[in-house]
Design goal:
Blueprint lengths: L1 E5 L9 E4 L10 E10 L1 H8 L11 E2 L3 E9 L11 E5 L10 E4 L4 E3 L6 H4 L3 H14 L7 E5 L4 H12 L3 E6 L4 H7 L3 E4 L14 E4 L3 H5 L12 E3 L6 H6 L4 E3 L6 H12 L7 E6 L3 H10 L5 E5 L2
Helix pairs in contact: 3-4
The protein binds NADP nicotinamide-adenine-dinucleotide phosphate.
Length: 308
């Protein structure tokens, strides 16, 4: 099979198109023919050797988001059979930038007919992060007000729509050129993060979903309601001292695969209540360029590799 493989960590040039044998599924595993593989900032960090949550075995195929078709199902198949269209999020020890990969049934869900393959291949990491940040860690409820920092990115554009669908009021920060688009996704109020101070614009907030960190996170404590909700960050641990001072909670989250959430998200997309914005689509062979764009470009929504 063709795969994008890296033999060392480093810049985008370590991503090489190679021929290698397809992986062999073990008992209880599925062989997936990959049709689309989403590209996420975590892929860039793994490629750079900056992601230390797990030990990368080299040479490695990377990529966590996947959409494709089950070709082989071994042993207990977890409700999947050859020919099923599926999508999901792989653990770190395997990669989706390849024509075939192995998945465990818990990592994937059935792709409903109303969800395209490229869209499905862009859901995994970003949509699960948005979902878990808002509803699991953030415990966002109907009628509450959420502030989403980084609303125009892969995670943010899902978060705006999920919060809106669940009846929350959405305040969102983004670059000026993205404000109109973020509003069209469903944000009630949009704030230009370079030219406005969000603290002066938001009013009382129940939850801050922080996809940016740094001083943006530091400045976010003051917007929370008194004895109010948390700051949930995908990047850095919010200060415990500030949390105490503001009688609030700070959470640093790590996304986890969850089949039920994948199903629910796919249903929303199939029903056209949520849309996946594909910022750029690259062929598998151009994974290197996809990483360059993610690192340097200013894109709306997701980058995805079309694999076959
Ligand atoms: N912990 C986890 O499990 C987990 C899971 C998923 C993602 N993450 C992390 O979460 C972050 C967001 O992920 P993503 O996929 O959404 O990234 P992304 O697609 O690169 O989006 C980031 C967005 O943030 C915007 N931005 C940058 N600085 C900002 C600021 N000061 N205020 C408001 N917006 C700002 C960017 O706008 P411009 O393009 O205009 O600069 C861009 O639209 C990444 O760092 C990623 O590694 C962590």
């Amino acid at each position: 099979m063709k795969a994008i493989r890296m033999h060392r960590t480093g810049g985008p040039s370590v991503l090489r198109l190679e021929e290698m044998p397809p992986p062999v599924p073990g008992r209880g595993e599925l062989l997936i023919e990959v049709h689309a593989a989403g590209v996420n900032p975590v892929d860039v960090k793994i490629r750079q050797g900056k992601f230390t949550m797990f030990k990368l075995e080299l040479p490695a195929v990377i990529g966590r988001d996947i959409a494709g078709v089950v070709r082989v199902a071994m042993g207990r198949k977890g409700g999947f059979k050859p020919g099923d269209a599926v999508f999901g999020m792989l653990d770190y020890d395997r990669g989706a930038y390849a024509e075939y990969t192995v998945a465990s049934p818990r990592e994937i869900a059935h792709r409903p007919p109303g969800v395209g393959e490229l869209e499905a291949g862009s859901i995994g990491v970003a949509a699960l992060t948005a979902w878990q940040g808002l509803f699991v860690h953030g415990r966002l409820k109907r009628g509450q007000r959420v502030l989403i920092h980084g609303a125009a990115g892969g995670v943010g554009h899902f978060a705006v729509q999920f919060a809106r669908v669940r009846g929350a009021t959405v305040v969102a920060t983004a670059s000026r050129r993205d404000l109109r688009w973020v509003k069209a996704l469903g944000a009630d109020q949009v704030i230009d993060f370079k030219n406005q101070r969000f603290e002066e614009e938001t009013g009382d907030i129940d939850l801050v979903l922080d996809l940016v960190a740094g001083e943006t996170q530091d400045r976010s404590w003051t917007v929370l309601k008194k004895r109010g909700g948390p700051i949930v960050s995908t990047l850095t641990e919010p200060s415990k001292a500030e949390a105490r001072k503001h009688h609030a909670r700070g959470v640093r989250m790590m996304v986890k695969v969850h089949q039920g959430q994948l199903d629910e998200i796919a249903r929303l997309i199939a029903a056209r209540k949520v849309r996946v914005t594909l910022g750029r689509v690259f062929p598998l062979a151009k994974a290197r360029q996809a990483h360059e764009v993610l690192e340097n470009g200013h894109l709306r929504g997701k980058i995805v590799l079309r694999v076959s």
